[in-house]
Amino acid sequence: MKISFVLNGRDVLLDTDPLRRLLDVLRDEFNLTGVKEGCGEGECGACSVLVNDKIMYSCILPVGSVDGSRVLTIEGYRETERYKVLQEAFTEAGSVQCGFCTPGFIMAAEALLSEDASPDEKSIREAISGNLCRCTGYSMIVDGIKIASRKGRGLW
Amino acid sequence: MKEKVDRSINRIDAPEKTGGYAEYIADMKFEGMLYAKTLRSEKPRAVIKSIDIPLLPEGCYVVDKNDIPGKNRVKMLLDDQPFFAEDIVNYIGEPILLVVGPDREQVAQVLSNIRVLYEEMEPVFTIVDAVKCDKASIYGEDNCFSGYEIIRGDPDRAFREAAEAIEGEYRTGLQEHIYLEPQGVIGVYENERVTVYGSMQCPYYIKTALVQGFGWDEERIRVVQTTTGGAFGGKEEYTSIIAGHAAFAAVKTGRPVRLIFDRAEDIICTTKRHPSIIKIKTALDKNRKITAMEVEITLDGGAYAGLSPVVLQRAMFAATGVYNIPNIKVKGRVFATNNVPSGAMRGFGGPQAFFAIEMHMQSLAESISRDPLDFKMENMLSKGDLTVTGGVLRYEVKLPQMIDLVEKMSGYRRKYEAFINDRGEVPKGIGLSIFYHGCAFTGSGEKEKIRARVKLKKRKDGKVLILVASVEMGQGSSTTLRKIVARAMDLPVEDVIYENPDTDIVPDSGPTVASRTVMIVGFLLKKAAERLKAGGEKAADFKVTEACEGPAELEVTEEYEEPGYIKWGHEKFEGDAYPTYSWGVNVVEVEVDPVTFVIKVNGIWGVYDIGTIIDERIIRGQMEGGIAQGLGYAAFEVMNTDCGNILQPSLADYIIPNSKEFPEMEIRLIDNPYEYGPFGAKGAGELPFIGAAPALASAVQNALKVPIKRLPVTPEYLLKVAEGEK
To answer: What is the dihedral angle through the alpha carbons of B100, B102, B104, B106, rounded to the nearest 10 degrees?
Structure first.
């Protein structure tokens, strides 16, 4: 089946099985390896991408379902000003350890901040509760998002 | 004036990881790469009668025990585990063979058409049954991988003369590491040499395992660590098995072979934390002073020994906790069962032992109507006292100050009193644990088994290269080790380079385990850096590698020397089990839902002595992450088996903490420099894990007023306890 969508700002078209996981298409067809597979069943969030600005697990999303949609991965997002603020804030807060979950958390943070530019602690913890991290205990990720929200005022 | 060494700097690996640039093993591609998948035993214990393999499609291969040119045993302590099963399988998930081919789906298809005919044997699933040994033994004559005894003083006499003796039995369950990046390796065979790339903790363990598996000269084996997405002990010994698989497959097929687990496979077949049964008996004299303690530790090692003997030793060396006990008997045994092999995990036997002793001390104090914290403090070790093994504590033990501090932070005493008398609708409790972690390898391991070597190389451009086998796996060593060298040489940290280890380039600084990387490897690096800075030194190993124009390249190596004070007798476990100890005090406050018995954590406070801090922010990350993983172990992470089948083989079933589980933690670090650590630093990575579970369980005990003797503290368990069952 022919599937077309906007991937990181560019129109793409491919002919493939619509039931293939979006994760596999992104990694194997487009070499977007910042999208990680941590569990393959929509629990850990390492594969998070934005589909029409909503946070989604690409490991449980059939590629057919994004036909006609906008898909943003870390590779597209890292070219933005917002990303730079988040990246610096994550570094400053010590949000990054092994890093495997980090691109997913960045996408979750973007999804949150674009809805609410100044979230409180509770909203942040809620917004990232679909992403798992085994290294930090989460508080330092929460801090990173708080710092980004403060320093990126006006960007979201 | 120099800046303080603990000033936090930005982690060097943060930007590349955040942006998705960092290359993990699954992100690597090689020309002509094949995919491998493992056929695993479906039976917990059986003889393989036959394996029926259908005609393989073009380009597909089967790799099994017959493709191992050397010894079909994974190099570990007892060498009992085969890379691929021979005629017997001993656990569900044991690898039998690989199917390798160019297309992942085709490989899976071929795999599903292979039929194995098993003749089942009677399996053993529990510690109790393994001890009983009334079925054919799995290991040796009695299922026992290892058994040891420590006796100090005259415990038998102390018990004979005791006014009373108080006993308790404590049990802990499985825990899975859940590093976010599943295990994975790629094997490549080129020019008669094999290279394994992968997510790992111990490049040289893997190299040694491959040398044995191939029976080749070590020059033909190369191991390269790739960016590693968490490990926690799970990528210590286990990775050697799959490194062998990928390497054998690469040699057989002549193509690069990728072997990467999905989450379910990772949970089913990789090592876990050892389940334990620990019995403690304490003798009191007529003044209710402790005169002796007897501790019996039994661990479930699973189907193969792996690192079980050393995990057991570490548990035994923590058996009496932070307490000064005059007469001690500790008996430890680890048994074979037909469960997935247990292995290294953060704390390495310590968490089980500290849960038992801390709960025992709490219950003991309460049973003789003493305040638990007062009672613990009266019996606490201090400088000059003896450890379990009779080693002298040579350095100041700052536990009293640490307890004062955590008391101020948490209001522990006031809350404990209030909660114990509270009969409110929602039970609330607060718990406190006191603990240590012996830094680096057990006994004479650093001197006799590891003999770490490090190398520094000053390049012509003035940059200094750190050459060690110690990996970055998330814990921050790529930044911390750079800081140590930069500080010792007065260089900006940007001028010090660290890259993922490649055994062709780096010397063996030992495995990245046992909270040893900063204290042992960092100390060697600091010494090397000081010599490199001195420049003109004429030591034998100080060589000018390229004496052409411009400044010369310089290299300096440093090898581990044991501090002179360490005395260790391995036969009787006598003396200094560790060079030194890191210490901690952890307080957790909870409430327990009166209907569902679900535990809610309301407060977490921790004070730690890890010597000098090298980077405050990295250490905060280690402490908070360790506590969270420890609280998961304590309350949420249930892993059960039924006839050898793991019942929670996914992250939907095996629940690890998420961002909503715990409130902000309050962490303080106190300074207590250690003379043989870099700038005074000791071990840090495992320590915070150890105190979390006993602190939480004590809090639940305070809330419900019943002794807690099991981990995890599940609602089902609390319901039973509340109903008065044992």
So the answer is: -80
B230/A134 touch (CB, cutoff 8 Å), yes or no: yes
B14 neighbourhood in chain A, CB within 8 Å:
87, 90-91, 96, 99
Judged by CB atoms closer than 8 Å, whether chains meet at B17 and A87 is answered as no
Q: Is B98 left (phi over 0), alpha (psi -120 to 50) or beta?
A: beta
Using an 8 Å CB-CB cutoff, list chain B residues near A75.
Answer: 20
Q: Are the CB atoms for A151 and A64 separated by under 8 Å?
A: no
Expressed in percent and rounded to 5, the helix, strand and coil fractions of chain B are 30, 25, 45
Q: How confident is the model at residue B701 (pLDDT cuts 50, 70, 90)?
A: very high
What DSSP state is assigned to residue B87?
A: S
B619/B596 Cα distance (integer angstroms) = 36
Q: Are B161 and B291 in contact (CB under 8 A)?
A: yes
pTM of the entire predicted model = 0.97
Nearest to B102 by CA among B34, B36, B55, B38: B34
CB contact under 8 A, B621 and A135: yes
B25-121+183-260 and B445-559, same CATH topology: no
Q: What is the pLDDT of residues B659-676, one digit of tens each?
A: 999 999 999 999 999 999
Which one of B658, B661, B696 makes the best mutation probe of the A interface by having the most chain A beta carbons within 10 Å?
Answer: B658
Kindly state whether residue A156 falls inside one of the protein's structural domains. Answer: no
Q: Are residues A54 and A104 in the same domain?
A: no
Residues 6+ apart with CB under 8 A from B357: B280, B295, B318, B319, B320, B321, B323
User: Class for domain B354-441+575-722, per CATH?
Assistant: alpha beta
Residue B58 CA to residue B55 CA, distance in Å, equals 9
Q: Is the pLDDT of residue B536 over 70?
A: no
Q: How are strands ordered across the β-sheet holding B46-52? A: B88-89, B46-52, B115-120
Q: How would you classify the pairing of strands B34-40 and B257-260?
A: parallel
Q: Are residues A66 and A89 in the same domain?
A: no
Cα separation, A57 vs A45, whole angstroms: 6
Mean pLDDT of B344-358: 98
Per-residue model confidence (pLDDT) at position B395: 97
Nearest Cα of chain B lies from the Cα of A23 at a distance, in angstroms, of 13
Map residue B436 onto helix, strand or coil.
strand
Q: B642: buried, middle or exposed (CB in 10 Å: 19+, 13-18, 0-12)?
A: exposed
A101 and A36 co-located in one domain:
no
CB count within 10 Å of CB B551 equals 11
Among partner residues A106, A128, A135, which is closest to B659 by beta-carbon distance? A128
- Give the residue from B103, B175, B180 with the most A CB atoms within 10 Å of its CB, the best one to mutate: B180
- Rounded CA-CA distance B428/B600 in Å is 9
Matching CATH number, B445-559, of 3.30.450.20, 3.30.365.10, 3.40.50.11320, 3.30.70.3040: 3.30.365.10
CA–CA separation, B390 vs B578, rounded Å?
A: 11
Q: Do B662 and A142 touch (CB under 8 A)?
A: no
Contact list, A148 vs chain B (CB under 8 Å): none
The residue of chain B nearest to residue A124, with distances taken between CA atoms, is B659
Q: Report the number of distinct structural domains present in chain A.
A: 2
**C-beta atoms of B181 and A131 within 8 A:** no
Look up residue B190 and give its two tokens: 């080129």
- Three-state SS for B667-699 is EEEECCCCCCCHHHECCCCCHHHHHHHHHHHHH
CA–CA dist B621, B628 (Å, integer) = 11
Return the DSSP state at B290.
E
d(CA B232, CA B272): 11
Q: What is the pLDDT of residues B452-494, one digit of tens each?
A: 999 999 988 899 999 999 999 999 999 999 999 999 999 999 9
Are A7 and A68 members of one domain? yes
